[in-house]
Amino acid sequence: MTMKKNSLVLAICIIVLELIGGMQTYLTQLILPIMAADLDAQDMYGVITGVGSISTMVGLPIGAALLQRCRLPRLLLTATFVLIIGAIISATAVNIWIFLIGRAISGLAGACLAMASIGAVAVGLTGRARQLTLAFNSASWVVASIVGPSYAAWVTNLLSWRWAMLCYLPFLLAARIIIAENLDSNQHPDDSPMPLKATGLIAIGIILMIVPVPSPWKYVLMVSGFLILGWVAIISMPPHTFTTGGIRLHALAGLFFLTGAYYSANELVTLSYHDLFSGSAKDLGYIILGGGLGWSVTGVLAGLKPAKNPRHYLIRIGTGVGLIITASTLITVALATRMAGLPPHPTMVVLWISAGIGMGIVYLDVLSTLFEDPIVPDGIPIETIAGSSVIVENLASAMFIPLLSSLVAVAFPQHGTSTTITPPTWPYVLSWGLVAVLAVIALSYLIRSGHSEKAAWLAKPAEADQSDRAAQAQPSVR
């Protein structure tokens, strides 16, 4: 009875933490342009997002190593306290450099907590309890898509972005303490999802993309860093992922560009509206609420009724990614024309909701394609595909978010100058145009994956028919 009670308490706290994690995602997205404007650091958008990406990628192997050497409850509590210290440093920062120190500390601790949380689910829960917890974790993002933007906008508007970073921390600490108290110290260590060599190259590539140097060296370094990250993407994936591929490999390549497009746009949408249309915290809250709710609700519905066959899969791919392409293209045109007489806020809300719905339609079906055995065996173990799916999303975020954020930052004078300007639209227009290009590339890979599956699906009855005929042609032995 006590074991069941502990499992229930543990499951509830893990779900609460997933909810808080979703809220943190929306909070970070909303306060970024407001904080950067307050600290006179809008020209350092790329540095801010890049530091978060570097600390997260570096923290994953550190978390995996600590998980092998430390008791899980102690690791959870220590990493939580470190994360809180980092958040306090950022929230009380008097300049952008102190904020970045806090962000780096929080990012490292957050990555260690991500590894420890996986261990908590694996060690503390078993059987049906584990399955239900993972299911409710996914459903909690529907709640997070409402509560997260609402909390971030309300607290930022009523108090400030600084308080928005602090007010939820007691709940985070309480949930972590309860989890640690209900965990058994016995654990099975997990390997890092990212090799150390690849992690080092990713850090170098991001640093080159975000380093604040004058033009034209900035563009040279951005291209160099992008090429390094592209090479890491190629060597980290199974062979032929981006070339000849197959059903699952083309789906993996499509997922890389799809998440790169959407996650980058997720950062750009608040930066664009805040900088070009003087958006308030309330305005930004409605925008990210619409997009997040569109993805989460549509994703739940799509998950309840997955694609039945390759034809349905291709229809969903075309519809979902088509919505993302259309939304990003229309945002590009709208920013280039300063909305062309349209009301800026409703226009941005509607377009971003459309992109969120598109992601909800397509995302789970792509994951299902990866994790289901293909009709024609490709010889790739499920462990390899599972690991690659984790790497591909992290790598896409680390590659494209800092790149496009750095491009947007070109609109502002170098940090330290007190000149107030109206930023030009071209960096935002170019960034959104690149999002549309990434989505088009994703669509091409996903369509190739769908057509490969359709061809295998159609060939299957023909092969079965030929086998039947061959069997009938054999003389019967009695």
UniProtKB/TrEMBL annotation:
Its main location: membrane. InterPro entries: MFS, MFS_dom, MFS_trans_sf. GO terms for cellular component: plasma membrane. It is a multi-pass membrane protein. GO terms for molecular function: transmembrane transporter activity. Residues 10-451 form the Major facilitator superfamily (MFS) profile domain. The keyword Transmembrane helix applies. This is MFS transporter. It is found in: Cell membrane. The chain crosses the membrane at residues 45-67, 74-98, 104-125, 132-154, 160-183, 195-213, 219-237, 249-265, 285-304, 313-337, 349-371, 391-413, 425-447. The keyword Transmembrane helix applies. Keywords: Membrane, Transmembrane, Transmembrane helix. It holds the Pfam family MFS_1.
